Amino acid sequence: MDFKNSEKLYKKGLKHLVGAVNSPVRAFASVGGNPLFIKKAKGTVITDVDGNDYIDYVLSYGPMILGHRHKKVEKAIKKALKNGYTFGASTKNEIKLAKIVCDAFPGMDKVRFVNSGTEAVLSALRLARAYTGNDKIIKFAGCYHGHSDALLVAAGSGLVTLSLPGSKGVPEGAVKNTLIANYNDLESVKAHFEKHDDIAGVIIEPIAGNMGVVLPQGNFLKELKAYLETKNALLIVDEVMTGFRSKFGGAQELLGVEADITCLGKVIGGGFPVGAYGARNEIMEMVSPLGAMYQAGTLSGNPIAMAAGIATLTELKKQNPYQKFDEIAARLEQMLREKANKHGVDIVVNRYGSMINPFFKRGVVTNFEEAQESDTKKFAVFFWELVKNGIFLPPSQFEAWFLSSALSEKDLEQTENAIDKAMEAVAK
Ligand code: PLP
C-alpha cells in the first residue's frame, strides 16, 4: 500500500489551505504522517486517491450511519436537486423532517434547523440564557460542543490531540460564564451551584465521544436532571453525536432522561450540513420570530439537506439497526480484548451502542483525566497498522469509532485480522 497521491495532494494543499485540511482533527497531528485524501466511498468502504480501500469506522465522524451513498438517500437527493438548491423561503420538507425529529424526542415540541452542530449548541445556550434570565453555563471537562467561543474550554479531542489547552483568540469575557465540572461527578456540579445563583443550565454529551467513548456511570444523567430541577436550571443534552445513533430517540431514549433543550447534528443531515435544537413549546417560543431570542441562517433548512435527512431517518427507522449495532460493538470489543491479550498489550475498551474505542492503558476510563492517561504513542502505531491493513479509523486516541448499519460479516473478519496485526505491532 502506498500513499503517494495523498502525499502529493497534502503538499499541494498546504499552499492555500491551513495545514491542508478544513478541520484540525483530519490532520493526523498525533499519529504522524500525512493525512489521507479521499476520492470516494460506497457502503462500508472508503477509497483514497491512491486507490486504497478501507472499511470506514470514521463515517465522516458519525453522519453516515447507513454507510455511504445509500441508494434511498441518493435517490432523494437527486430528486431534490431537480427543484433547486436553496430558496430563502420555507419548504414542505422542513415540516416533514421537523415532525420526524420531534416524534423521536418526547421533550421536543418544536425544532429549529441550523447548519452545523456548533450552531445548534451555541443557539441552545443563547436560548437557555434567554429562558432562565441567567448567564452561567456548566460544561464537563472533555466534552466537546463545537467551536463557539464560550465552549472552547476543556473541550476534548481536537484540542487534546493537538495538545492545546483551549484556543487563542477566545476573549476572557467569552468564557467568564462557562463553569467546568467533572464528568460523572455530580458533586462537582453542585459545588458550582453553591457558589453561583445565576446558572442557566448544564450542557452535556450524554455519552461522551470526544474524549474517546466515556459512559455515564449508574444514573448520572437522571440524577443530574433531578438536581437541576431543584435549581430551576436547564439540562441541555448535546446529542449531535448520539442523536439517532444511540437509539432512534438518541441517548435520551437509551438512558430514560428527557432534556430541556436537545441539540442535534450529524445523522439528521444524512451527510449534508444540518444541525438542530429543540425543546418544549414554552422554551422554543422564546425564539424569533415568536420570541425575543434572535437566531437566523441563510441556508438553514436547506432543501437538499432536508431531503437527505428525511431519507436517512426514514430508512434508519425501518432498519432499526440498534440491536445489530450492539452485537457488532460487542464483537469488536471482544476482538480488541482478545488480540490485546494475545500480544500482551494493556487496553481499556469503552463502548455504547454504535460508538466504541480502545484506550491504551490499564484500569478504567470514566472521565477526561483517566482518558488522558492513555499511551498516544501506542495508539499511533496501532492506527497506522490498521490503515495499512485496510481499516480507516479516526486519527486520534480521543475520538469514537462509529459503526454503520451496512457493516457485513466480511468487514468484521477483515477488521479482526487487522486488529491482530496492529496489536502485534504495538507490542513490539
Ligand atoms: N457537539 C458534539 C457532541 C460533537 O461531537 C460535535 C462535533 O463533533 C459538535 C457538537 C459540533 O458539530 P459540528 O462539527 O457539526 O459543528
TrEMBL record:
Entry EC no(s): 5.4.3.8
Co-factor(s): pyridoxal 5'-phosphate
The entry's keywords: Cytoplasm, Isomerase, Porphyrin biosynthesis, Pyridoxal phosphate
Principal cellular location given in the protein's record: cytoplasm
Pathway(s) it belongs to: Porphyrin-containing compound metabolism; protoporphyrin-IX biosynthesis; 5-aminolevulinate from L-glutamyl-tRNA(Glu): step 2/2
CDD domains named among the record's database cross-references: OAT_like (cd00610)
One MF annotation (Gene Ontology) recorded for this entry: glutamate-1-semialdehyde 2,1-aminomutase activity
Stored Pfam families: Aminotran_3
Location in the cell: Cytoplasm
Source taxon at top rank: Bacteria
Residues carrying N6-(pyridoxal phosphate)lysine: K266
Entry's transmembrane regions: none
Keyword match Isomerase: yes
Catalysed reactions listed for this entry: (S)-4-amino-5-oxopentanoate = 5-aminolevulinate
Family: Belongs to the class-III pyridoxal-phosphate-dependent aminotransferase family. HemL subfamily.
Subunit annotation: Homodimer.
NCBIfam families, sorted: hemL, PRK00062.1
Official protein name in the record: Glutamate-1-semialdehyde 2,1-aminomutase
Lineage: Bacteria, Pseudomonadati, Bacteroidota, Flavobacteriia, Flavobacteriales
Gene transcribed to yield this protein: hemL
